[in-house]
Write a structure and sequence with these properties.
alpha+beta; 7-stranded antiparallel β-sheet; 2 domains; 3-stranded antiparallel β-sheet; about 325 residues; 9 helices
């Protein structure tokens, strides 16, 4: 199978809901792309006690090994972390109000000092430039970025990078399993993938929750501590966990209405992979609940990758 290239890139064929009012709710509880599942029995224990939030997950990886990992964070640390992701109209309105005030001040100063129209235009242009920078900074600090056409979208590479150190304790939990069982890179990737697919519920976050725009994505630690997420959320989570291994190189892959990822690996026979800047990235389908190993994606995803609109790639590292 060969998928039409986009920007020179070609794909080749070879138990728990959170009840906190300050946490996002969601729509669809199960499903996602990838078929009917088939993964092993899993469990999750989500706890909030003694000022801490904790989550423990049990699942089976593609080596048929039973794996258990845990993560915890103090509520004092979690709340500002969770609140920092997502932007509000009020925040953008404040920046717009600043621009209007600054533009008016520039006009009044030009009149008072008898400046030319060209000088006024230059001053107004400087205000507009600073306005754009302030919007960019505000969105960036809340996990978003401005695209062409004034479209705001989640900054997935930035989300992965920002969460690398924060989620390191969970990466170390996987590292401990990998060391004890002598896993190689592919085994580690498979363990993290099966965790996201089967141990975490598939559920779609509300794009706007209590006037905060989330882009329909949960930040990785929030997802771990409440036990669910959708394709974007789980991709960001897997990317954040795997980024703690220096040799891991990853890309996000966006198709209409869906998001998945690729990891730099030598493809096995039958694996679906893409080539980006001369390197081969084996595709991962994080969404679940289907239990699909690296190199396999759902039928719907395959159709989307082959679709007329193609796909877009953004490197995580």
């Amino acid at each position: 199978m060969v998928i039409p290239p986009v920007d020179g890139q070609t794909v080749f064929g070879q138990d728990s809901d959170d009840e906190d009012d300050d946490l996002p709710s969601g729509g669809q509880r199960s499903g996602g792309d990838g078929g009917t599942g088939g993964g092993p029995k899993t469990f999750q224990r989500i706890q909030k006690t003694g000022g801490y939030r904790a989550a423990t997950y049990g699942f089976q990886n593609f080596n048929k090994d039973k794996v258990e990992v845990s993560y915890q964070l103090s509520d004092k640390e979690f709340r500002p972390y969770n609140e920092s992701f997502g932007y509000r109209k009020e925040g953008l309105a404040e920046i717009k109000a600043w621009r209007e005030t600054a533009t008016k001040s520039a006009f009044n100063l030009a009149v008072k000092q008898g400046k030319s129209q060209a000088q006024l235009d230059k001053a107004v242009a400087a205000v507009s430039k600073e306005y754009d920078e302030r919007v960019k900074e505000y969105l960036g600090s809340h996990g978003f970025r401005m695209m062409k056409g004034n479209t705001v979208t989640v900054d997935m590479p930035g989300l992965v990078s920002k969460n690398k150190d924060l989620i390191k304790p969970l990466s170390l939990a996987f590292e401990k399993v990998a060391t004890s069982r002598k896993y190689r890179s592919g085994d580690i990737i498979g363990a993290v993938l099966s965790f996201a697919q089967t141990a975490m519920y598939y559920k779609q976050p509300d794009p706007v929750y209590k006037d905060k725009h989330t882009g329909g994505v949960l930040p990785p630690i929030t997802a771990v501590l409440i036990g669910w997420g959708d394709c974007d959320t789980k991709t960001g989570l897997i990317g954040s966990i795997l980024s703690n291994w220096a040799q891991m190189k990853m890309v996000g892959v966006s198709v209409p209405g869906h998001y998945l990822m690729g990891v730099l690996l030598i493809p096995d026979k039958g694996d679906l992979f893409l080539e980006y800047q001369g390197l081969q990235y084996v595709l991962l389908e994080p969404a679940g609940p289907a239990w699909l190993p690296p190199g396999q994606v759902g039928e719907e995803t395959t159709m989307l990758l082959n679709g007329r609109e193609g796909y877009k790639i953004e490197p995580f590292y």
